[in-house]
Amino acid sequence: MPWPLLVPAVVGLAFLVLPLLGLLLRAPWSTLGTRLVQGEVLEALRLSLVSATAATALSVVFGVPLAWLLARTEFPGRAVVRALVTVPLVLPPVVGGVALLLVLGRRGLIGAQLDAWFGVTIPFTSVAVVLAQVFVAMPFLVISVEGALRGADRRYEEAAATLGAGRVTVFRRVTLPMVLPGVVAGAVLCWARALGEFGATITFAGNFPGTTRTMPLAVYLAMESDPQAAIVLSVVLLAVSVAVLAGLRERWVGAV
Amino acid sequence: MRPPALDARLVVRRGAFALDIAVTAAPGEVVALLGPNGAGKTTALRALAGLEPLADGGRLLVDGADLSRHAVERRPIGVVFQDYLLFAHLSALDNVAFGPRCRGVSKHAARREAAGWLERVGLAELAEARPRRLSGGQAQRVALARALAARPRLLLLDEPLAALDAHTRLTVRAELRRHLAAFDGAAVLVTHDPLDAMVLADRLVVVEDGAVVQEGAPAEVARRPRTDYVARLVGLNLYRGTAAGGTVRVGGAGGVALAAAGEEPVTGEVFVAFSPGAVALFRSRPDGSPRNVWPAVVSGFERHGDLVRVHLDGALPAMADITAPALADLDLEPGRRLWASVKAAETRAYPA
């Protein structure tokens, strides 16, 4: 074994695994059961799962066509559009939250109109939680699906066209099934990112129990008042993440 | 009068490469585009299908209708691709049903239609199989059924047998011939294999460097090649020369005068062709007729069926087929000088 590679590899692995190990070692296992069934924990967990799933669904509905546009069409400024799509990946989520507030807030560019015409306000609601998650998580899906589309053999789409399929039919019946592993991989990444979302959520949606307090927010809050509770919440998040990852591992690895 | 099933002039420009060929076909006729790799055959096929845009001057009429501006999916043109491109996520049946579905046929009816096509190509029992489970020959037949099920007026086949092993090729070639005969529209197939072209096609169009260099019935092309490429394909020695008084001068200055037999008397620019089997080799200059004998240098040899094919350099580069005992008698090795001759009666001269 070449130690110049082995040593840093082991250090890196330890760095990734030890914190998780610490979490498991310090968890109050004896009182875990009773703490878990407390209303607030279940509430936060339910909100997290529902909002992350909704955010993933929205990301698929809008992100897959966006990825198709980037991978399959030529239009002026496409490079710029792609760069814009990836901005949320590098933007601090808190900044994303501020930006969402400026657009969709009660005095925001669009938010003001929504309020005036429909009496709808988005900030500090569960909808805002989902939107914040979509903002930070959708780029993962778009990037993943675009990569899959670029890697897909376009001659199959040509074959479908010679059989009389228009572009929408080709997309639905040939392209989508071909890139499905990429879509699944992207959706998993997207869901995981949405589940862990903190900065944009707390800025744009606030921290209200039952409506906007997701698991990460609950963990952060608990750290101030009841560290034991924070550990329990963290263990739950860890378990849910690992379970989802393990469940989709086969396809995930096969795709990328 | 009925318009030709296909009347096309395929003009495609891509960087330094330019394709400009005319292809016509009568209803039921099978035309083979034959040519070396990179000649533009596949580009021509893609242009017919609409996968490659036609440049100015291009024309595409199928059954008299101008299709050159139609999108790919609006052309009644079926394609059997070289590696078949069956949809991996659909069963053989659903692959074949794809075309009818796109025509707006209900799922049930499309499947029934597809089952009929699979039956016709002898694969009814593999209807539910995914493409990856099919052998090369089976996949080829599914691809053919899929293309035909879309009810094309023009069928295109890109190297339909190239991906198959020698044994499968034999049976699939015979079946394909039968299916092409049953198809009432025109068919254009692209191949670099002269045998496939001769067996499957009613007419050959030989393409080199983006242009048609020869076309005609397979027998005609095989008998009277007009380029070195075609001559090599059909296994003939071919020379261009000037004919006068029954003698053809080939090989330019320092060339050779051949007494050549033409089906009609020829003068001026002509081709002379003869088979390697007609060439005799001698260690010393043979007596008798002074004509049709020339000095040659052996550049190499190889097995060719039961015979040995000897490659000759010199004034008249040629191939000669001799028997193994003759090889031993002549004590052949590369660089050996000897004499070659061919009987006038075994040569064919025809106008260039």
From TrEMBL, chain A:
Keyword Metal-binding applies: no
Matches recorded under InterPro entries: MetI-like, MetI-like_sf, ModB_ABC, NifC_ABC_porter
Keyword field contains Membrane: yes
CDD domains attached to this UniProt entry: TM_PBP2
Signal peptide residues on this chain, from the entry's feature table: none
NCBIfam families: Mo_ABC_porter (TIGR01581), modB_ABC (TIGR02141)
Function: Part of the binding-protein-dependent transport system for molybdenum; probably responsible for the translocation of the substrate across the membrane.
Record-given protein name: Molybdenum transport system permease
Species name: Allonocardiopsis opalescens
Lineage, opening ranks: Bacteria, Bacillati, Actinomycetota, Actinomycetes, Streptosporangiales
UniProtKB/TrEMBL annotation, chain B:
One GO biological process term: molybdate ion transport
The UniProt record lists the keyword Transport: yes
Domain Mop: residue ranges: 287-351
PANTHER family with a match to the protein in the record: SPERMIDINE/PUTRESCINE IMPORT ATP-BINDING PROTEIN POTA (PTHR42781), SPERMIDINE_PUTRESCINE IMPORT ATP-BINDING PROTEIN POTA (PTHR42781:SF4)
One Pfam short name: ABC_tran
Keywords: ATP-binding, Molybdenum, Nucleotide-binding, Transport
Name of protein: Molybdate transport system ATP-binding protein
Domain ABC transporter: 1-234
Record's keyword annotation contains Transport: yes
Single GO MF descriptor: ATP hydrolysis activity
